[in-house]
Write a structure and sequence with these properties.
The complex is a heterodimer of chains A (about 575) and B (about 80). Chain A is an alpha/beta fold and about 575 residues long. Helices cover about 35% and strands about 25% of the residues of chain A. Among the domains of chain A are: about 240 residues, ANL, N-terminal domain (Rossmann fold, 3-Layer(aba) Sandwich); about 100 residues, GMP Synthetase, Chain A, domain 3. The longest helix of chain A has 19 residues. Chain B has three helices and no strands. The radius of gyration of chain B is 12 Å and the shape is globular. The N and C termini of chain B lie close together (about 10 Å). The chains are: A alpha/beta (about 575), B mainly alpha (about 80).
Chain lengths: ~575, ~80
């Protein structure tokens, strides 16, 4: 059966567990070199056990629970158990070793309060025991994991297509995060579109390191394989960060055919994988490497394909896509690979917002990578952001999308939900153009900073920075600047200070700012620039402008680099 | 491969970290300054430092040791290099 024949996330998992209980559905790889494989029968039993534990703890259909659990079977069991029970799970990240526990607790409390969560579900046996970190939190903390108990398969009633399934936090690092609520019906339409678009079948094996609290990890790493019916091999994000070769090794060991990652991961693999780690690998089965979550760069694609060609990796496996959590995960994707690269005239782009074709690699030319065409069930328009009128091909405007699988709402934010749609079209606040029917994303209308597939809110960064002694209220500005070597953006913080000329004070302030941002938000600054009063560009209404300040920073950087 | 004195290792690491990873060659990085937990470099940098150490001194640091706790200062990293 196709995933399109089912109506909720639970139906295909249960059906497969009953029909082929011994099928190896999920393999988890751990940093100590061990692995654990769960059959679909075990995955389903784990989920029923978790549902039983949540039921016994008094959680019921319609409740929201945030889930803060690390890489492991317990996280998958708790997520699926909640979905089975009708409890709406919202996954959040676990604290990194750099984060201050008090800041983490405040963040989780804030997120839980924002979505009206009845409990925060944490795992047992985590590296950092969250039960302790969250002790004293204003919300209820429940320790969950795999459990031997089980609710009967039909009691309480399984969710229906109209029910909410889960929510995802998006766009931000702290209090500004929005909770996107998804329903079963929309999710199943999305998974059907995904199955058809990429021709997934039982012979496929996905290897994924992106975290499950990220839409790419949750949908492509877990839910698509479980519901469509192909094997998933999951690596913890921290493991991959430290040892990127683990992904390539897993592709070889498990016959991986598919993987997903943001663009920066290509650069990380190229720069941090050692030759001896991959010399014996065979990557010829790898048929799809889907890039999304941040702008895709032609030089990253080329470098990855060239580096691992010896192992049998084919450039034709590369695909780029455009998506956003409000539309589950993906809106467009390339039908074949490698993606087209469009060279355009930088001047015409800046002056006239037109993508005039240019000679590749020539001075004044800039390239964009095609994000492909709308998926089945999705449509897009490029419009003038001011008046909403449609723009012709090669004109840059705001990308608006309409998907049959859109979110139900921003949870508890009805006004924001309404304001985000115009006649059913979602205002992405991203800028792009269409050429030959394919979408090219050129930037953002908003100030969100995209670092390694992670959306950072400049407001959150500035708020933390301005609390640091020596920084001045409303005198900091944060923005992202593209880095060719990293394949993603670097966070730049410009900070007006009382005396930027005093070297000793400057370094002391830099240390305080870097520490504060790491402890509060786990954000590492790519550059801190301390400047004199009045540097930050303001609008005519006196509000600081991140866009204009970024342009000023760029112009000064060019001047500084000039001979 | 002969390993140089500790101070030389620290100097080489400082040049690499400030120049390549922080892109801030003039930053006065102290030998005991917290690199990752102090917000100077991110967690991804650990993998790059490991490659640098292997290429420069031929020392292979196993994956379980590539943690923030064990690699968080120039001194800690230099001691690990000397350990071989």
């Amino acid at each position: 059966m196709s995933v399109g024949d089912y109506h909720t996330l639970i139906e295909p998992i249960r059906a497969r567990a009953e029909a082929t209980p011994d099928w190896p559905a999920i393999t988890l790889l751990f940093e100590d070199g061990t692995s654990e494989t769960a059959t679909i029968g075990e995955v389903w039993r784990d989920a029923l056990g978790a549902a039983s534990a949540l039921d016994a703890a008094g959680l019921c259909k319609g409740d929201v629970a945030t889930v803060a659990m690390g890489h492991g079977r317990g996280l998958i069991a708790t997520f699926l158990g909640a979905v089975r029970l009708g409890v709406v799970p919202a996954l959040v990240s676990t604290p990194t070793p750099r984060m201050d526990p008090d800041h983490y607790r405040t963040r989780v409390e804030s997120l839980a309060r924002g979505v009206g969560a009845v409990a925060v579900l944490v795992g047992s046996g985590e590296q950092t025991p969250l039960e302790g970190v969250l002790a004293g939190a204003s919300c209820r903390v429940l320790v969950c994991g795999t459990s031997s108990g089980a609710v009967a398969a039909d009691t309480p009633p399984a969710p229906s297509p109209a029910d909410p399934a889960f929510m995802q936090f998006t766009s931000g690092t702290g209090g500004s995060q929005k909770a996107v609520l998804h329903g079963h019906a929309g999710l199943m339409r999305y998974l059907e579109s995904k199955e058809m678009g990429h021709g997934f079948g039982p012979e496929d094996v996905v290897v994924c390191w992106t975290p499950l609290y990220h839409d790419q990890g949750l949908l492509s790493g877990l839910l698509a394989p479980l519901t469509i019916g192909f094997r998933s091999v999951l690596i913890s994000p921290l493991h991959w960060v430290r040892q990127p070769a683990v992904l390539l090794r897993a592709m070889h060991d498990y016959g991986g055919t598919v993987s997903y990652m943001p663009n920066f991961a290509l650069n990380h693999c190229v720069r941090a994988v050692r030759e001896r780690e991959v010399a014996d690998l065979d990557l010829r089965r790898w048929r799809l490497l889907l890039l999304g979550g941040e702008p895709v760069r032609a030089d990253s694609l080329r470098a990855f394909a060239e580096r691992f060609a010896v192992q049998g990796f084919r450039a034709s496996a590369l695909r780029a896509g455009y998506g956003l959590a409000e539309m589950v995960e993906g809106v467009t994707a390339g039908l074949s690979g490698p993606p087209n690269v469009d060279w355009v005239d930088r001047g015409a782009l800046q002056r006239e917002q037109r993508a005039e074709p240019a000679v590749p690699e020539q001075p004044g030319a800039i390239s964009f990578v095609s994000c492909g065409v709308p998926k089945d069930g999705a449509a897009l328009r490029i419009v003038d952001p001011e008046d909403g009128t449609d723009l012709p091909e090669r004109c840059v405007g705001e990308i608006r999308v309409k998907c049959s699988y859109r979110m139900l709402e921003y949870h508890r934010q009805a006004e924001l939900t309404d304001a985000s749609f115009v006649d059913g079209w979602f205002r992405t606040r991203d800028l792009g153009y269409v050429a030959a029917g394919e979408l090219y994303v050129v930037g953002r209308h908003s100030d969100v900073i995209l670092v390694g597939g992670r959306n950072l809110s400049p407001e959150d960064i500035e708020t933390v920075a301005e609390r640091v002694p020596g920084a001045l209220p409303d005198r900091t500005v944060a923005f992202g600047v593209a880095s060719e070597s990293l394949g993603t953006e670097r966070v730049v913080l410009v900070c007006e200070s009382v005396d930027p000329g005093d070297a000793e004070q400057r370094i002391a302030l830099e240390r305080r700012l870097r520490l504060a941002l790491t402890e509060a938000l786990d954000v590492t600054l790519g550059e801190l620039r301390l400047v004199e009063r009045g540097w930050i560009v303001k609008t005519s209404s006196g509000k600081k402008s991140r866009r204009l300040s970024r342009e000023k920073y760029g112009a000064q950087s060019v001047d500084a680099a000039a001979p | 491969m002969n390993t140089p004195p500790r101070s030389q290792i620290i100097d080489a690491l400082r040049v690499f970290i400030c120049g390549e990873l922080m892109q801030h060659p003039s930053y006065p990085l102290r030998a005991d300054e917290k690199l990752m937990s102090g917000g100077l470099i991110d967690s991804f940098s650990v993998a790059h430092i490991a490659v640098f150490i292997e290429v420069t001194w031929g020392v292979n640091i196993p994956n379980p040791e590539l943690t923030v706790e064990r690699m968080d200062t120039l001194e800690l990293i230099a001691d690990r290099v000397l350990h071989g």
